[in-house]
Design brief:
mainly beta; 9-stranded antiparallel sheet; 4 helices
């Protein structure tokens, strides 16, 4: 094992940290930690790539190749949790999400004081579709462990996965999320685009909405509903046709898109 301290700066600011080169069996691995002003990055680098990284004990869809980093005891200081997952980026309130379709996770406390509020956002910083999170236990305590998804059979030389832990004291949930989003845009030199699904109200017919699974006179029902909302001066931006909206009872069985048109 080779250990090197880091003390430098880049376009993201000043940082301190450590670079550790070590062997995992016959595989070269480098782990890098950089501590900036209000966020920390954790990188796992495979200098020569990796083969045979899966094993029979792995639940490949919901496992990761390495346990770095691993956070223990987050529930004590930040008992609140919000995460996102699956192809719809659906929110998960009060619990973490795991596996290759898991999204960012926010750990926070419920303090109403800005000075004592705590919020941290844990997310991947690159190779987002190769990223996963798993539950684990260290010394009998629950741990939060992100890493490269266990679905890969091998990794190319030079592959690296970087994870970011952003936030701190005095932020609160909303400010932390907004600041994290700005940092991600700055990191990749992108700008926020106007999104009608965020900027305006909409009427949804997805699962759970009033007219989900409508089976008779559906078009007129929807037109009447929208006209009624307009009369009430509800500023609708769009109407979404989703769910089992269609009159044809065999629609889904014929192989058409199941929930969104």
């Amino acid at each position: 094992m080779k250990y090197s301290e880091l003390n430098g700066s880049d376009e993201r600011g000043q940082y301190q940290g450590a670079d550790i080169e070590w062997m995992a069996g016959n595989t070269n691995v480098t782990t890098i930690v950089k501590n900036y002003n209000n966020f920390v990055t954790f990188t796992v680098l495979w200098p020569l790539g990796a083969k045979g990284v899966q094993n029979d004990a792995m639940n490949r869809e919901h496992d990761v190749m390495q346990n770095f980093p691993a956070f223990v005891g987050l529930e004590k200081t930040t008992p609140g949790v919000v995460s996102w997952n699956n192809s719809c980026i659906a929110p998960s309130l009060g619990k973490k999400t795991y596996g290759p379709m898991s999204g960012p996770t926010v750990f926070y406390n419920d303090s109403t004081s800005a000075a004592s509020g705590i919020a941290f956002i844990a997310s991947s910083l690159n190779w987002f579709k190769a990223f996963g999170e798993v539950p684990a236990t260290y010394s009998g305590m629950p741990a939060f462990v992100p890493g490269t998804s266990g679905t890969f059979e091998s990794l190319p030389a030079g592959f690296n996965q970087t994870f970011i832990f952003y936030g701190g004291y005095g932020m609160g949930f909303t400010k932390a999320m907004s600041s994290w989003g700005s940092l991600m845009q700055k990191w990749y030199r992108t700008n926020k685009m106007r999104d009608i699904t965020i900027d305006t109200l909409s009427y949804q017919t997805d699962n759970g909405a009033q007219y989900c699974n409508c089976h008779s006179d559906c078009s007129n029902k929807l037109i009447s509903t929208v006209n009624n909302l307009h009369k009430q001066k509800v500023p609708l931006g769009f109407v979404s046709y989703q769910g089992a909206w269609w009159n044809n009872a065999h629609f889904h069985q014929r192989g058409y898109p199941s929930w969104c048109v």
